[in-house]
Amino acid sequence: MIHVTRDLLTVLLERAAERDPEETNLRLSATPAGDFETDTGLDPATPVLTHFTPTGVGGSVNAVFGVDLGTPAGHGGARFLSHPDGFLGVSKTDDLAAVVIVAVPPYDDESVAAFDRGGDGVELGVVDAAPPEESLPE
User: Fold this and answer.
1) Mean pLDDT to the nearest integer, 10-28
2) Nearest CA-CA partner of 80 in 48, 111, 53, 59
3) Which long-range contacts (CB under 8 A, 24 or more apart) does 101-108 make?
4) Residue 118: which of 103, 97, 102 has the closest Cα?
5) For the sheet containing 78-82, what is the strand order?
6) Is the pLDDT score of 69 beyond 50?
7) What does the alpha-carbon distance between residue 54 and residue 48 come to, in Å, rounded to a whole number?
8) C-alpha span between 105 and 111 (Å, rounded)
9) For 33, which DSSP code?
10) What is the pLDDT of residues 100-131, one digit of tens each?
11) pLDDT score, position 132
12) How far apart, in whole angstroms, are the C-alpha atoms of residue 13 and residue 24?
């Protein structure tokens, strides 16, 4: 099972709807369930998808040096994709990750599903909790 926060899923679906008919392609990062301030009911080590990074961030450095600065270290093992054509699955032309969440029009809770790298369906669990607040060090 893959877990995603309600807030992140809402933002992802809204973003896909705004970009339609263009595709949306975002890297997703997780936070361990034990880091949440509220009890998620999950094992503390369970990763919960909480953040996204637009594809292409840090692309210049990646193109020259092969170092992806757009994804925080240890993150980005999941991806969100929209398929405006209505195909609720993983295609050969998709950017893949260990887990791929795909949404199709009308971009609501009934039009989203999770898949592994091979395209097999994975149960998607929505967590109604906010990740811990983050701030930049002073």
Assistant:
1) 96
2) 53
3) 101/2, 101/4, 101/12, 101/28, 101/49, 103/12, 103/13, 103/16, 103/24, 105/17, 105/20, 106/17, 107/13, 107/14, 107/16, 107/17, 107/20, 107/82, 108/13
4) 97
5) 121-122, 112-116, 99-103, 78-82, 25-32, 47-54, 2-5, 124-127
6) no
7) 18
8) 7
9) G
10) 999 999 999 999 999 998 899 999 999 999 88
11) 85
12) 10
Residue 1 neighbours by CB under 8 Å, 6+ apart: 122, 123, 124, 125
Residue range 27-38: average pLDDT? 93
Length of the chain: 138
Distance (Å, rounded) from C-alpha 103 to C-alpha 114? 9
Model pTM score: 0.82
Q: H or E stretch including 32?
A: strand 25-32
Tokens (6 digits) for 7: 């807030």
